[in-house]
Every structure is written in C-alpha cells, then in structure tokens.
Amino acid sequence: MLKVQEIREIIKLIDKSNIDEFCYESDGTKVSMKKQQGQVVTEPVQVQETAKPQPAPQQEPTAKEPVQQKEEPAQKQESPETEQGSSDYDQEITSPMVGTFYQSPSPEEGPYVQEGDQVKEDSVVCIVEAMKLFNEIEAEVSGEIVEILVKDGELVEYGQPLFRVKSK
C-alpha cells in the first residue's frame, strides 16, 4: 500500500511533468490521477479489505515530523561551531527533488564523499531516492566538501542544501 508521503511525491512529480493521466494499481489498491487545466486531480482510492490500515500511514508522517523537528534544534546548536567555518564555502549542492538522502550506494559500502574530499562537476556525491528510484546526484561544482548538511536516510525537499563546497 502506498504511504501518504509517496502519494504526495507522485502528485508533485506528475504536476511538474507533461503527463496528463496516471494510474497505479497494486495489491487491490488503485490510485488514478488526471490533470485538469494544469492542476492534478486525484480520484478516490479503491481498497479491498485494507481500509483499516490506511490511517496508520497518515499517522506515521506526523510521528516522524516531530522527530525531525527535534533534530533541527540539535543542528542549530552545532551551527555556532560551523558558523565560524560558514565563510569557508561559496557554493551549495542542493537536492533536485523530494526524496530520501543516502550517502552511500548501499549500506555495506562507504559514503560517496566525506568532509574534506575533493569533488569535480561530474562526481557523484549522494543518492536521493524518490518513489523507489535511486537517483545519483552529481556535484555540478568543483571544489572541496566543507560540510555535509543532511544525515543518511533523512528526507530532503526540492532545493534543500545537502553539501557546502569551497570552489577551487
């Protein structure tokens, strides 16, 4: 069954694309979307005997959001230390999409980059998973990774800074 976050991602992607109609069916669940006058309109979800678990996915994102909000103050507490180094960067690598950030190609392997690593424009720095698709993100700048702003497995938004880079 699709989670609420996955449905939201699908809506955003379809809204930005040239697709006029989208249908998805799995395990008795059917999601159908059509664009009308440039807006995405979703049709009711049809579910077979799985209607009761549906509220649980809606509760999961709300349960996860406070956890992320608790992590943000921790990052802000660290920011005075990093503010000293904030002038040490002149570029940021941002997320080109909404998804889940991964530092390495698999849990068994090491991260693509670490702080202090040199990157080129075509260097892969991370993966952002969106709708079960793993998208390799390239640096698009040359320089040194000064700071990694996102933790492995964390949800990221479109345009959210992932890395700070000092150009050569």
Structure description:
With 168 residues, this protein is α+β, with helices and mostly antiparallel strands. The chain has two helices and eleven strands; from the N terminus they run H-E-E-E-H-E-E-E-E-E-E-E-E. Strands 4-11-9-6 form a four-stranded antiparallel beta sheet, with no helix packed on it. Strands 8-7-5-10 form a four-stranded antiparallel beta sheet, with no helix packed on it. It is elongated, with a radius of gyration of 19 Å. The N and C termini lie far apart (47 Å). 14% of the residues are buried.
What layout of secondary structure does this protein have?
Blueprint: H1 4-16, E1 21-26, E2 29-36, E3 39-42, H2 55-84, E4 91-94, E5 99-102, E6 118-119, E7 124-130, E8 133-138, E9 143-148, E10 155-156, E11 161-167
Antiparallel strand pairs: 1-2, 2-3, 4-11, 5-7, 5-10, 6-9, 7-8, 9-11
